[in-house]
Amino acid sequence: MKLFPKRNFIAELSGSSSEAMAELKRNTDITDSLVSDWTKKAFRGQVNKSEFKIISSEIGRGAVCVLNGKFEGKIGEIEVRIHKAFKVMFSILMLMPIFGFGIMVLTNGIEKSLGIIIPMAVGIIFVRFLFIELSFRFISKTGLKKLTNIMGIIKLKKTLPTG
């Protein structure tokens, strides 16, 4: 299991990719940075003739997942991954119990600090499976629903991640 989840999909469009990309472009606030901001559009990011790199426009949680896609004809690939800024934030959250253990070892000695190893491990597992996994699942699902409705995706099949 990887530290940060990622999902890949094969998508089939109901119409042509040029129509779907044009519709996505109409519903996307075009910007070079993938940062949440107030907008009436469904997504923020970059959209061109056959590719896109977008985040949901929902303030606060929309930027957690980045959706990358490439379409040719009616078939395309979509990758959903965690935004780099959130990877840094989640990594810091997971390292906090380790730093706390290190400080406790320095102040109290290793013998008195061994009792905190299990709570430290539980803290790391809590962050990984509660914050990272659940937020990725819920936010990626809502982003994919919006993308499916806007682009007219009729079939979305999960594939194994590459690389």
Describe the protein in words.
The chain is of the alpha+beta class and 163 residues long. The protein is built from 4 helices and 7 strands, in the order βαβββββαααβ. It has a 7-stranded mixed beta sheet. It is elongated and about 65 Å long. The chain starts with 5 loop residues before the first strand and ends with a strand. The mean pLDDT is 88.
Task: Please supply descriptive tags for the structure shown above.
7 strands; 163 residues; alpha+beta; seven-stranded mixed sheet
Task: Walk me through the topology.
Elements: E1 6-13, H1 17-26, E2 28-30, E3 43-47, E4 51-56, E5 65-72, E6 75-82, H2 84-108, H3 110-113, H4 117-151, E7 153-159
Parallel strand pairs: 2-3
Antiparallel strand pairs: 1-6, 1-7, 3-4, 4-5, 5-6
In short:
By secondary structure, the chain is of the alpha+beta class. It has 4 helices and 7 strands.
